[in-house]
Amino acid sequence: MQFIDLAKQQRLIKDKIDQRIQDVLAHGKYIMGPEIREMEAQLADYVGVKHCVSCASGTDALLMPLLAWGIGPGDAVFTTPFTFIATAEVIQLLGATPVFVDIDRTSYNIDPTLLDEAIETVIAEGKLKPKAIIPVDLFGLPADYPAIEAIAQKYDIKLLEDAAQGFGGQIGDKLACSFGDAASTSFFPAKPLGCYGDGGAIFTDDDDLYEKLVSIRVHGKGGDKYDNVRIGLNGRMDTLQAAIVLEKFQLFPNEVTLRNKVAKSYNEKLAGVVVTPSVPDGYLSSWAQYSILAKDAEDRQTIQSKLKAADIPSAIYYPKSLHQQTAFAHLGLGAGDFPVSEEMSQRIFSLPMYPYLEEQDIKTITEVLKS
Ligand SMILES: *Cc1c(COP(=O)(O)O)cnc(C)c1O
User: Fold this and answer.
1) Predicted confidence band at 225 (pLDDT cuts at 50, 70, 90)?
2) In this structure, what are the phi and psi dihedrals at residue 274, rounded to the nearest 5 degrees?
3) Which atom of ligand 1 is nearest to the CA of 191?
4) Which atom of ligand 1 is least distant from the CA of 57?
5) Cβ partners under 8 Å of residue 360, min gap 6
6) What is the pTM of this model?
7) Ligand 1 centre and the CA of 265: distance in Å?
8) What would the pLDDT profile of 7-31 be if each residue is shown by its tens digit?
9) N or C: which end of the chain has fewer CB within 10 A?
10) Is the CB of residue 81 less than 8 Å from the CB of residue 115?
11) What is the largest CA-CA distance in the chain?
12) What span, in angstroms and rounded, lies between the C-alpha atoms of 151 and 143?
């Protein structure tokens, strides 16, 4: 059994992927070829926003809007400590200061009440200027955007949705990647919509931001590539990767449904056995991960060993909160500062999750957990 089995998906579309690759080899436009625009148009349409700007990775998709907004030294950017390093890394990379805010203990997403308090504290201290919030749609579940959008408006600061894991999720009829001023996603192979390498995209309704992102993507280009009006990146996505996403995207809406079926089956079989994930009313998760809680770190170790003995892979997202990472030691934070995040990093672990996970496998996995 695999943690994420991408081969099953590939078998369904192998011929189409081969054809797409041959098409790119035939036209030879490896950089910014026609598949890039085609993919951007389809994804913007699906998400229901005006613009999609593809880029080289989910990390660049976070970095580029912050660059466009001129975020830098002296600025505070609020985010969760319970996420992948990239979310906070981009803040630090620009010389701004990540301000961590603890998570809600049922959604594992940033806690809006604590967020409001953290912004007030930064204002009262007067050392940093609150500039932006980056909530994360952890494991595929959208963060509490109704509450967070109100906070962003109250303080007049930018809101960037980190939907690297969240593409395909929903709140009501609004899709993930449509919240805030801009949203970022990743096409890393293991994400809900992946390519066969690195890739990412930014979504926005803001025309001015769109123009800046297009410029930043190619070294801050102005009229042309050799007219540089700002500092940017080589942030382009490969044409070949866009060609892959185009074919995988055909399967994607159905895959979100299949992932939700897998999650439902896990939930039913594991009710009362472990703490299963909870999805608030009106929310839809894209189930990047199916994560459950053990009683404590020791219990988790025991369960993971039993799974391993039965040839069932499992993984821990995330074993260490970002405020406890050496890379952020200069912030002077430590144990006890974000108790919920720290507790979850001791207890949480994820089970195999992909659209084509079979009912028989779910039975096998849950039987081991029940024993
Ligand atoms: C994967 C991930 C990223 C970074 O995406 P890459 O494409 O790997 O650069 C950013 N944020 C979160 C929450 C992620 O899971």
Assistant:
1) confident
2) -135, 175
3) 1
4) 7
5) none
6) 0.98
7) 27
8) 999 999 999 999 999 999 999 999 9
9) C
10) no
11) 65
12) 13
